[in-house]
Every structure is written in structure tokens, then in C-alpha cells.
Amino acid sequence: MELRTHQIFHDLCQHGGIERPEPGTGLKLTFKDTKGNLLQEVEANEGDDILSIAHEYDIDLEGACEGSVACSTCHVILPQEYYDVLPEPDDDENDMLDMAFGLTDTSRLGCQVKMTKELDGITVTLPAATRNMFVDGECTSMS
Amino acid sequence: MMKLAIIGGGPSAFYVAGRIFSLLKNAPIKIHMYERRWSPYGLVRYGVAPDHPEVKNCIHKFEETARDPRFRFFGNVFVGHPPKNEEDKRLLSRNVVLPVDSLLGHYTHLLVATGCPFPRFHLKLPRRSPWCLPALDIVHWYTYNQLSRHRPPPLENSPHISIIGAGNVALDVARILLTPPSQLEKYDVPEHVLEVLHRSKLRHVSIIARRGPLDAAFTAKELREMMNLPDSAMIPIPKNVLDEAAKSEMTRQQSRILQLLQKGSKNVPGSTQKTWSIDFFRNPVKLETIEKKELLGEAPDLPLNLKLAHTEVDPKTRQARETQEFTNLRTSLVVTSLGFQAEPHDYGRIANSYEGENYDKRLHYIRTDAGGRLLRPISTDHPILDKSGLESAPPELLKPVDRVYASGWASVGAKGVLASTMMNAYNVAETIVSDWLASQDKSVSPAADDTLPAGHKGNKVEDLEFPMKSQVNMDSLPEEVKESAHPVFSFDDWKKVDEEEVRRGEERGKERERVDWP
């Protein structure tokens, strides 16, 4: 059966609650899915966390507890060289990472990673989830 | 056409609804959610411990879903047969009762998201007695659940409580009972609960685990909170138990839990008023009340004798087996915390087969395929559960029911945290949407192959009609909901109650003060 597939991003009423920098002036982040497909290249300011940045740009990263380190829904995978420059996750974050899907050695909670100059150019991989079914970007409009 | 009825109003129901709306942004679909309580959110409101308010932040997302004009909430509606026994009649006396058959004619799609509302019990212990109660009763008490008995646990007479089971619910209950009530006052803990906690004479909680530290179902966060309790200390776990566990290969989570257990509590035993312990490798075999005064000795407030069998874990199967050694534990109250199970609905009628057909009595949840499609047997000779009660039907003897789905704990059993419920719900939502899109595409034939696999005899279950209609009036509602002796709560009605609870809470300097019946 040929499946018509769709990628429709979440219509968040509230965005990330952060300011987008003037294009070309911010720190760069690239979001990819598990298969390495590019989702979006975005820019953010120093101090913004990855969850808020994802929400600002409508990237499909959940934040069920809204950044209070009480869930694992904003789990992201970082490249080793960027992971290494970050301070170690604290106990609370590790407790939540324990329960993350597809945990890796360079996994973090997106809400706990704040952008710095050292992280400029980072690639953020969203772990395997259920978002694989809807892939080709076609938009549904039944009205 | 999609007009989806969701039975249940907990996190799974909301995550499915929200995901469908976001996948089908402009489609003129309708989602109607039927919830037995007058309030939405299920375990997020009636399960999450009050000192974990941040877990409830997911409600903001659920409110966004509820604001979609295609959504309607019907609170205080019990979907199922009118209750027969007195207990159920009393519990549902203020509910609108909506039989499944009345619901079906008005919808093209159905989702069962009724969770796992029932506690599982211990074979050797009473289900409910003055000395023994399920942990769920305590959770219902401190969350002021309208479907509960509202009987507070007898904390004034219980210096020693034994909790059977080592999951997060056991630790939630232990933590709430051991936390100084002054620290709980700012949270969503009802005043009448705080009063009882203030009068509590509790001095020790024993958490009794059938297996060892590596098999415990609790998570590191909850264990860490126990270790950091201000006025309590953990009795150290015997060194041989920890050393033996340390020899095994461990997952990251297991090794972090073991480290916490090795390190012990922040307070050392002897320095605090209250203590707690985890007694690994113990399984209750008998609970006796000590009737004779002379036998009570110097501990008249420990009137129970809980006989515990010692166990060991088979390293291959990870099953516990008894060693024929026993210990007697004097205690004041036994609380069972052994997991939960789904409701044995007769949604089999939806699958036009037999009573209780989709509910697996061995697994204690509804059988679905990987996408959340509700399954039914293809043959009368191969029911969901065979007559021995030991074997569930293999997948090749089951087939999905058209446009009927189940999600969350109702379909996977009571396990996992909110994140797992969300992932499951998104998967089911995507199945519903892709099935629907496929059915819109006329080139795809909906005919399913009903042939029995080779080697299986038996009568094919007849396809009478698809249980769900393909054409319905998008605005029609079941008669029971339109006219009833009892109120049906809309989402706006709930929001009024919600605001009132927050207002009453503000008066007292706390998160909210819950109301019983609005």
C-alpha cells in the first residue's frame, strides 16, 4: 500500500520565548533527524537553550515539562566534540536521561544545553521516535 | 470523514488528539473526548504526586488541544454498561452512563484510552481490610479523587507501615507519608489531607521487594528524593545484597540506582525521628492480626504480624523463588503497590465477536497491533486468551478492527513514564491519520484478507458490519449526553472549576485547593 506521507509541523501557540538574532549574526545550529536528514539550519543567541531554540523554529522537539528537568522528551544527541566542551550533566538531568529513548553516550536534555560561542556550528540530532512515518513534506489541506 | 470518539481523558487521550490535530491542521474533522470524571487529565491530575508539580506542565499543551474548535470534552460521562453491583452503582451514582452501543452510531472512529484504573493485588494478602489497602487508595486520597472512597489511611495509629512492591508508586506513597507536612503545604495537597498528615504517628516505612536491587521498578529520581528526605534516614541495605548485585552486568539506570543504594541516605540512621528501609528478596505469605493482649508485648501499636518468605532470583529468568526461610515483621498497616491493570471492557462487542474479547486477562490490557489498531481473533477456536488462561493468541490469529484503536496504558499495560505515553500516543495518532488518508485514496481497496493461516481449523468470525459507521452527522451526539439527569461537563465548565481551585489555593498560599464536586 502506498502511503501518502506528511510532515506537518506542530503549530505551537507559544514559540520558544526567545529572540531570533538578525540573520547572519547569531550562533549556528543544524537540526537533523536520526537518519541524518537535515531538518533545519537556524541561528540563536548566546544563552538560549536547545529546547527553546527548537520551539522558536517549530522543530518537532517536545518539552512536556517545559524545561524543568522532570521528563526526557527533549532528549537530543550531540556530536562528541561538542558534548565534551559542555559541563557534565547533573544528577537530576542524568535521572531523566536514564529514561530517554535511544540514549547514547553523547545524549543531553535539550533544555539543559545553553548556547555558547564554543557550540557555534553544532549539529543537534533528534533521537529515533515516531516521526519517521511522515517524511515527504506534503501538506494536508482537506478544506 | 473523521469523527473520532475517545474514551478516556488522560494524557494518552490528549496526546493522540493533539497529534491528530497537528497532522491534519485544516481538515474538518471532529474529536469528542468522553471522560468518566468531571475533570480532564487522568493520572496527570490524579496520579502525579503533589510534590512533582513540574510534571503537570504538560497540561499547558493539553489545553492548547482543547482550544481547537474541532475538539469537545464530555466530562462526567462513563462509557460502558449501567453498573450492576451496589459498589459500582454508588461510585457512578452521579455519572452519566453511556452504553458503548449508543456511542458507536455517532462516530466514524473510536479510540480506547481508558488506562489502567485498577490496582493489582497480592494473592496472599487481603484486597482491602482495616489493616491492608492498595497504594492506589492513598493516591486517590491525596489527589482527592472523586471516584475514590476518600477514606484516609489510619496514620494516627500506624507507626510502622509496610509497603509491598518497589515501584515509583510505592516510593511516591512512602515519600508523601514521610515528608514533613509543612513542606507539602505549598503544593496541590487538599487541606483535609494535610490535617491527617499533621496528626500522623508514622515512624518507619518498610518497602518490601520480591526481588533484588537490579530488579526494582522505581527510577533514580524517586529513589534520590527518598535519600534526601529531611527528617528520615534509610536503614542501610545489607552489604552482601549490594555486593552480590554489583557483580552483575548492569544497565546505566541499574548501576546509578545501585550507587544510590550504596551511598545511602543524606541523614544517618539514629539522627532522625523517622526511618525507612527497602527489604529486598522478601515476599509476603501471610498477614495475621495479633488478638491477644499479652502477645502484643511492648508494641501494642504493631498489631500485625506479616510473615515474609525469603526469596532468591533465578539469574536466567529473573524470576523470584522462595528459599523456605521466613521472617516475621511486626507492622501496623500493609499497603500493596503491585501495579495496575486495564478495565476488562466488553469492547469485544465493537469487534462484533464475544464478551471481553479484546481484553487479554493474562496481560491485563487490550490487544492492539504495533500501530494501535484494536485486534480481535479471526477464529472462534482461537480466542484472545485460551481456556487454560496461560496463552495469549499469537499475532497471526488476530486481525485489526476497522477504525477502532487503543492507546496508552489500556493497550500496553501500566508501565513507563509520561514520555513513553506520549511516544505511544503519537504513534497511534499517526496510524489513525495514515489509515484515514489511505481510505480517502480510492485506489486503495479496504478489503482485508480473512483467510485462516494454514493448519488452523475453526470457524471464521463473521464480518457482520464494520462496527464504526463510514458516514455520520458531524454534529450529532448520543441521546444520553444530550439529555440526562446528571451534568455533562464541557471543557469550559472544567476551566471554571480549575480557576476556582487556583483561586482557593491562592487564598491559602498554595498551588490549588481541590474541590470535591463542583
Automatic annotation (TrEMBL), chain A:
The record places domain 2Fe-2S ferredoxin-type at: 27-130
Q: Which InterPro entries match?
A: 2Fe-2S_ferredoxin-like_sf, 2Fe-2S_ferredoxin-type, Adrenodoxin-like, Adrenodoxin_Fe-S_BS, Beta-grasp_dom_sf
GO aspect biological process, one term: P450-containing electron transport chain
> Can you quote a single GO CC term?
mitochondrion
Q: Which cofactor does it need?
A: [2Fe-2S] cluster
Q: Which UniProt keywords apply?
A: 2Fe-2S, Iron, Iron-sulfur, Metal-binding
Q: Which GO terms describe its molecular function?
A: 2 iron, 2 sulfur cluster binding; electron transfer activity; metal ion binding
- Metal-binding as UniProt keyword: yes
A single Pfam family it belongs to is: Fer2
Top-level taxon in the UniProt lineage: Eukaryota
The keyword Cytoplasm appears for this protein: no
| SUPFAM superfamilies, per database record | 2Fe-2S ferredoxin-like
Family designation: Belongs to the adrenodoxin/putidaredoxin family.
Protein name as annotated: 2Fe-2S ferredoxin-type domain-containing protein
Q: What is the lineage of its organism?
A: Eukaryota, Fungi, Dikarya, Basidiomycota, Agaricomycotina
TrEMBL record, chain B:
Keywords on record: FAD, Flavoprotein, NADP, Oxidoreductase
Q: Which GO terms describe its molecular function?
A: oxidoreductase activity
NADP keyword on record: yes
**Does the keyword field hold Flavoprotein?**
yes
Matching entries from InterPro entries are given as: FAD/NAD-bd_sf (IPR036188), Ferredox_Rdtase (IPR055275)
Give the residues annotated as coiled coil.
none
Required co-factors: FAD
Q: Which PANTHER family match?
A: GLUTAMATE SYNTHASE 1 [NADH], CHLOROPLASTIC-LIKE
Instruction: Output this protein's name.
Output: NADPH:adrenodoxin oxidoreductase, mitochondrial
Q: Which organism is it from?
A: Amanita thiersii Skay4041
